[in-house]
Automatic annotation (TrEMBL):
Classification of source organism: Bacteria, Pseudomonadati, Pseudomonadota, Gammaproteobacteria, Vibrionales
PANTHER family, per database record: ZINC UPTAKE REGULATION PROTEIN
Subunit description: Homodimer.
Protein family: Belongs to the Fur family.
Family matches, as InterPro entries: FUR, Fur_C, WH-like_DNA-bd_sf, WH_DNA-bd_sf
Keyword match Cytoplasm: yes
Localization per record: Cytoplasm
Chief location of this protein within or outside the cell: cytoplasm
The protein's name in its UniProt record: Ferric uptake regulation protein
SUPFAM superfamilies in UniProt: Winged helix' DNA-binding domain
Length: 147
C-alpha cells in the first residue's frame, strides 16, 4: 500500500475532525490490497493474523466508518467491500464491473453516465445519499482463459 494514500486519508480525516484509528486503517489497507471484493468475515480472518483478539464488531465498526467517509464501497450483490477510486468524496456515483469468475472488481467514473444520473435526480428533485451501479459478467482475463 502506498504510504501517500494513507497520508491522504489521514489528512481527509483530520480535516473532517474524525479519527482514523489503527483498526480502521488496517481494515482499509486490507481492502485496498485486494482487487477482489472482501467480505467482513474475510477481513476479520486477515485482521486476526495481526490482532488475534479481533472480533466481528471491530470489523463492522471499521467498515461503517470507511463507508461513511467515502473511502470504500459496499458491493451490494455480494455483501462485500472494495476501495473507492475517488476516495473521500462522500457522495458520488460509481459503476462497478464485477467478474463472476475471478471476483475482481473495477470501479469506473464516467462523466456522461454521471451527467445522465444527475439529470434524472434533478428532474425528480431527489436527494441521493449513495449511488452504485453494479454490472456482473466476465472480465477480459477470464474471457481469454475460456478460449
Amino acid at each position: 500500500m502506498k504510504q501517500s494514500l494513507i497520508q491522504q486519508i489521514e489528512a481527509i480525516c483530520s480535516d473532517r475532525g474524525v479519527r482514523l484509528t489503527p483498526q480502521r486503517r488496517l481494515v482499509f489497507e486490507l481492502i485496498s490490497k485486494n482487487k477482489k471484493a472482501s467480505s467482513a468475515y474475510e477481513l476479520l480472518e486477515q485482521l486476526k493474523a495481526v490482532e488475534p483478539q479481533a472480533k466481528p464488531p471491530t470489523v463492522y465498526r471499521a467498515l461503517d466508518f470507511l463507508l461513511e467517509q467515502g473511502f470504500i464501497h459496499r458491493v451490494e450483490s455480494t455483501n462485500s467491500f472494495v476501495s473507492c477510486c475517488s476516495f473521500g468524496e462522500q457522495k458520488h456515483f460509481s459503476h462497478l464491473l464485477i467478474c463472476d469468475k475471478c471476483g475482481n472488481v473495477v470501479e469506473l467514473q464516467d462523466d456522461n453516465l454521471i451527467a445522465l444520473l444527475d439529470k434524472n435526480i434533478d428532474k425528480h428533485q431527489f436527494q441521493f445519499s449513495n449511488h452504485v451501479i453494479e454490472s456482473h459478467g466476465t472480465c477480459k482475463n477470464c474471457s481469454s482463459l475460456e478460449k
